[in-house]
Structures
1.
Amino acid sequence: TDLGYGTIRAVIFGAPGSGKGTIAQRIVKDFKVQHISSGDVLRSHISKETEYGKQIADIVKVGGLVPSKMLSSLIEIELEKKVPGVKGFLLDGYPRTIEQAGILQNLKSPNLVVFLNVPFDTIIDRIKSRWIHPGSGRIYNLEFSPPKVEGKDDLTGEPLIQREDDKPESVLRRLELYQMEAEPLLAYYRERGVLQEFWGTESNKIYPEVFKCITETYELDADY
Ligand code: G5P
Ligand code: MG
């Protein structure tokens, strides 16, 4: 089946540590979508010390929200990229305010919003043992999904790092901001009939439900 580029216009939404990146990586393996993670885009600017990276480094470090305008244009650039073989996009971490949702709506309105509803106490434990490969954004967890070799990325062998904003104070700030922004954003997408909620504490149980939802939403057959 050829859906044509742009048919899957999905967003994955949830609290910090709810498993957006983890579930997104599985979706990308099973469906031909472009994964656009706002956090990965920002972290790459910060580590390359671009002009923009320098401006936002301190905000991201303490778990604040970066200004929407600049971030939105960076996301737009990613959305405009024509990636060969790809049949849509999956936005992860964007939008997270009503302002951003409005910008995206005018650009490419999402037709599915996957909401991961994971309890906060589960999240706090997970984030403590998260490690990432900064080059690719690949995510590990010392308990849930450890790397094959301690401290090293499975594919490149490069060193893994912990995120600067995974320190307890920053995590708390991120959770607070999430609590302020989430409800209006969920209402926005609920009104538009595109919101699908997944409740749980284990990504391995949530993912099969998400998989089923995607195949049903886009009427994909097995040979997709
Ligand atoms: P990010 O990068 O978008 P957050 O805070 O929204 O950051 P985060 O922390 O990346 O979200 P996640 O992607 O939802 O979390 O979760 P994950 O990484 O997949 O999973 C967390 C950990 O749990 C991992 O170690 C994973 O292996 C493990 N895990 C997953 N499933 C399970 C499970 O079932 N069991 C167990 N035990 N473990 C599991 O944004 C970062 C910053 O960038 C700025 C902000 O400053 C933000 O704080 N930013 C924006 N600012 C303004 N507007 C925006 N739209 C912005 N987007 C980013
Ligand atoms: Mg993430």
Note: The pocket of G5P (ligand 1) is lined by residues 14, 16-22, 38-39, 42, 59-60, 63-66, 71, 93-96, 100, 126-127, 130, 139-141, 143-145, 165, 174, 202-204 (CB under 6 Å).
2.
Amino acid sequence: FKKLAAFVAVMMMSVLLVGCGGGGTQEEKQADSNKVYNIKIGSPVVETHPAHDGFLKFIELVEKNSNGQIKTELHANAVLGGDRELTEAVQMGTVTMNLSSTSPVANFDKSFYIFDLPFLFPDRDTAYRVLDGPVGQKVLDNLSSQGIKGLGYWENGFRNITNSKRSINKIEDLKGLKIRTMENQLHMAAWKEMGANPTPMAFGEVYTALQQGTVDGQENPLALIDSNKFYEPNKYLTMSGHIYTPFVVMMNEKFFNELPEDLQKVVLDAVKEAGDYQRQLMIEQEKKSLQIITDNGNVINELPAEEKEKMVELMKPVYDKGAELMGSSQLIDELLAEVKK
Ligand code: TK8
């Protein structure tokens, strides 16, 4: 009997050793500290936009902090495609990492519709706190169902309206205006509620559409209105700030999971630090962009506060549609509770 007990003990020990030795892929990965990992980055924005600087900062940080184990290649100016194409490429693994406005990503995971609810965040600091908090993280984690690792949020910003027809001094001025929207049902519903005529279109086609008059106007944060020169075909700029759109930074999940834990932390820390840096650049850029548009002789007005309040009232059905598209109002309720903290 004693022999049998000893045999079982040896067997148990060997299984345990193998278990924590061979199967422990972390140790194997850790041991292979000479392995180089190449991150192929696709960016949908032009090099003059601070999101490009965000990627440059990310690259500096990961190459420095990985002792050369992480190499990068940055394909900027949407040469590998816009939001949707790049997100599909990250999903397939043909591109390792990208950023996209959250709105097109709602077509991959419906929880991203949350960010197309108008007037969700009263200011930047609230947006940053909520995005970097538990609700923002929950939305990022939902991307896992699409084979994507959500890494964090950088800033696109509060959206303003440009058009070639007239200043928007009251909501009625939007009536019948052909406005390009992002390819996102909730975004389109918001503009319908305000009496405009929404046309969904990829970002890369917007300038030509404005120039040819296919659409009368579009809406984007000032930095993009400047970097993509929408103020040239669109003489009128109305500062409405009706939606805060984040950029979501994403990575192919299989690639991320194959990184040793220490390099996963290097990537996550670099996305966070580069994001803080990019957010600061955006605050500066917004002032510069407004000056450029002013110097170009555009007609600029602020949507009056009472009109913004009317917009908030008009948007209530959009919140209901958002809950319908997302399957419930739970995430909306959670996010609004975070906003109010
Ligand atoms: C840039 C887009 C842009 C977005 C849009 O790729 O499509 O209007 O606001 O920032 O993501």
Note: The longest strand covers residues 148-158.
